[in-house]
Amino acid sequence: MSIDLSQFIATFLEESYEGIDIMETSLLNLDSEDDETINVIFRAAHSIKGGAGTFGFDEVANFTHVVETLLEEVRSGKQNITADLVNLFLESVDCIKGLLGAAQDGPQADQQQIEDVKQRLEAFIVASEPGDENVEQNAESPSGNKKYCWKINFSANPEILENGHEPALMFAALADIGPLKVVADTSSLPPLAEYDPQLLYLSWRIDCTFDCTESQIKEVFEWVEDECTLEMNQVEFEQRASRTWQINFVPNQELLSTGNEPALMFSALAQLGDLAVKAHTEKLLSLDDQQPDLLNISWQLTLVSDCEKAEIADIFEWVDDLCELQISELASTAEQQQALGTDTQNSDQDATESTKDSSDKAKASKSKAVESSSIRVDTDKIDSLINRVGELVITQAMLGQVGDDLADVAGVDTERLQKGLEQLERNTRDLQEDVMRVRMLPVSFVFNRFPRLVHDVSGKLSKKVQLIITGEQTEIDKTVMEKIGDPMVHLVRNSLDHGLEEPAERIAAGKPELGTVKLNAYHQGGFVVIDIIDDGRGLNTEKIRAKALEKGLITAEQQLSEDEINGLIFKPGFSTADVVSDLSGRGVGLDVVIRNIESLGGQVTVKSEAGKGSAFSIKLPLTLAILEGQLVRVHEDTYVIPLVSIVETIVVPKEAKNPIAGEQKLLHFRDEYISHLDLKKLFHLPGAESAASTDTTLVAIVENAGKKVGLVVDELYGQQQVVIKSLEVNFKRVEGLSGATILGDGSVALILDVAGLIQRGLNFEVASAVKSRNHLKNERTQGYL
Amino acid sequence: MATILVVDDSVSLRNMVTFTLKNEGFDVVEAGDGQEALSKAKGAKFDLVLTDVNMPRMDGITFCAALRKEAAFKFTPILILTTENSPEMKEKGKTAGATGWLVKPFNPEKLLSTIKRVVR
Known about the structure:
The complex is a heterodimer.
Chain A: H1 9-28, H2 35-54, H3 58-75, H4 83-103, H5 111-124, E1 148-156, H6 167-177, E2 180-185, E3 203-208, H7 214-221, E4 228-236, E5 244-251, H8 262-270, E6 274-280, E7 298-304, H9 309-315, E8 323-330, H10 333-365, H11 379-408, H12 415-439, E9 440-442, H13 444-447, H14 450-461, E10 465-470, E11 475-477, H15 478-499, H16 503-508, E12 515-524, E13 527-534, H17 541-550, H18 562-567, H19 590-599, E14 603-609, E15 613-621, E16 626-634, E17 637-642, E18 646-653, E19 657-660, E20 664-669, E21 672-678, H20 679-682, H21 688-693, E22 696-704, E23 707-713, E24 715-723, H22 727-730, E25 737-742, E26 748-752, H23 754-774
Parallel strand pairs in A: 10-12, 17-26, 21-23
Antiparallel strand pairs in A: 1-3, 1-4, 2-3, 5-7, 5-8, 6-7, 9-11, 12-13, 13-15, 14-15, 16-17, 16-24, 18-22, 19-20, 20-21, 22-23, 25-26
Chain B: E1 3-7, H1 11-23, E2 27-31, H2 34-41, E3 48-52, H3 60-69, E4 78-82, H4 87-95, E5 100-103, H5 108-115
Parallel strand pairs in B: 1-2, 1-3, 3-4, 4-5
Helix pairs in contact in B: 2-3
């Protein structure tokens, strides 16, 4: 029997990478008094080693063994934890990662580095241990032509049964090596009245008629060696007989009805020499079905005797038409063993086959006993599930609408239908939430890489930094999570490189030498906010302004608030680092960060105070698949405005629109002047002018990145959760729109890209302002843009 | 056929052991740590228990000792799956009431030939 181990390898690798993450995180949190953390690290290494050995990744196993040995010394207090040791362990973790990657068809691991780390690990290890190669082959295999066999006396403590030991099974295991005779010594059996069934009263004498090494026998009794007396004597095989016969005897079921009795035939055989009998009982029926007249047993017999084949055949003479009989001579003891061995395997196979039916049935009838608290599922499957649920939501909305329409028809009683539809809506929503939750993972999956990063980077920069992580249990969509890793790395590196000062500078500024970087995550509305806060020198607004001027991002006369200046660092092509350092400022600016995050529907903001530090805040949608939306009508079409960006929806009387700066018409809203964006005009829909001329206007005030704009719409519909369908995938990217959705009536509604609209609105504003100045006479500029 | 409780925190190893045993026709119940195994064992009947040593929540040695105290498991074979082939580990196992041990790494063949000593 052989089992294909490769089917377990994917799980093993996944598990090992998790183990590596755990090791890394725990190593960085290690402090000498903390036993549990070192235990966790040890366990992770231990599991990797165990799995690697089992699944054939010997290099990984060998390397991890050394790591584990040293960890064990730390765990048992033989080693003190030093920064050097932690670093060495961290390097080892990298090596394991490299080896695993190589095992997974990745690039070849750096052998030199691995060898180097391994040597350094070994140098640390106090007691050079003998290694756990199995110390066998002590017992010398007897050589020469002489044949040997074993005589064993086995007696055990009466209490031996209590730990689950069963002598009969040990003998059976021994019998797997070769034929043997077991004789029980019953002399110590007490009278029945004093008999305790939990105690063992027997001892045994075992005659092995085969030759093997001492360790083979010892292995069988290995688990009880301290609780038993085991006398083993290798004696020369008293071999009057030089021939070994193997007899396979498979009688017909009806053999017994002829008056023949196998047991008696075997006794007759035993007269010829030493006989070992092995019965194959696999075909035995269960007791209920047993028919006493029928024989369902076959036998394998080994006879050591000088007799001739004919003498054996004679014994079976009466039944030779009632059985299958094979008599063969084995040339040597070795061959005999071999033959027995292979035969055992064959018969095992037979056994498996014959019991297959019954065990299949048993499996089917038994309720599945295997449980597990989590299962691994392909994300593709989950995405498909989410899609399907999205379609279901649309179908449900459609049915709801049909229900509403029917309710309006006179004479139709729709009460039951309505109830059903309500239930459907509730269930659909619950289902959708549950399915969305499947995709949610704690943000710690991303956060976990930072302790190592901070450790390494601060080491390179010779800055002293502590990293404080909070809110790592906050959950976020897996897709979103996968995409924020790199932007976050960028921001954290930035904080370490540019934000935090050198220790000397910090002390001079009256700050603690140890700088702090905080990562914090929390939920806010339908968003997850991730803060990256450092207590460094803060952004230098003067420097930023100067740089922006130099790069032509702003003009000298532009008046900018502090926040606006800080916002400049996100502009393409902006980098303040005077020297491009090894760590950040590699020509990829923060604009890439912000672009990545905006592509997820998120925002980045920065707050900074000179000398006190800076705080970057990433705001991300919980999920990319659904959206709480406000449905609005513009001209004849329905649009969706993401609810999160709506500040307020107001009706504006005509006179509230104050003309300022010539042609610009602004809305006075809660002490702020905000500009209008007429969607009709933006999307080139008819009717823009007439809307402007009505007495009142409906305006949805939306906000993004601290900027507000009023969107002029014709009518407000309901609020609804919509399933986002990508425009890029189904059509092409359209400016001002972030996607589309399908409404209950089957029509398509476009989802407004608020950030884009605000940006566009402001540009439009500037452009039209410029335009109106230049072409005042020629252009009719009556809109409020 | 015998029912075997397999306790290991490593999913891949547990998968391998379970697959091997089921392939041989055994019924298998899995647990990810000692505590889970103990709660699964209580009130149930197993013909053999295979347990890893290093596990979170409750290690294999503690689990073994606790299980052995249960009347129903007084005579049940319990094998420890360990990477350490040291006398100390064996002593630790025995003190906790373990029947025997199986040294990792082992292959399916070794596993099957070994458990034959305690369950058939």
